[in-house]
Amino acid sequence: MLQRVEDRGCAYLPQVNAFYMHELQMMYAAEEAARFLHHACRGLPARVAARDEAADEPADFFYGRVLENALAYFGSRVLYPRAQPCGKATCAISVTRRARMWNAKPVCRLRKPFAR
Q1: Sequence ranges of the domains in the chain
Q2: How do residues 46-89 score in pLDDT, each as one tens digit?
Q3: Considering Cα of 39, then 54, then 5, then 78, what sign does the dihedral take?
Q4: Kind and range of the H or E element at 38?
């Protein structure tokens, strides 16, 4: 959590329904605002800790996080369209790496990274 605040300048904690902001970086602030909207639609505050949710079914937790991150990214692009888009290869590698971490199978695999 602290690493996220240091890297991005802000973070949203759904368990306590709070934003922590170290410095304003519009792209990341827009992403965290979108993350807040996602959690607000699910009901605030989050009543289940991430650890408890992960203990039930690791694959469900993984794909829930993928959906949350995708919605946060989409929302950040809506709120702040000038943000630099994530590279396709970078996103696919990140999804594959996290799938391995949670012992889940990624939806797709890339044979070659996309060229920019």
Answers
A1: 2-82
A2: 666 555 655 577 788 888 888 888 998 898 889 888 877 665 55
A3: negative
A4: helix 26-42
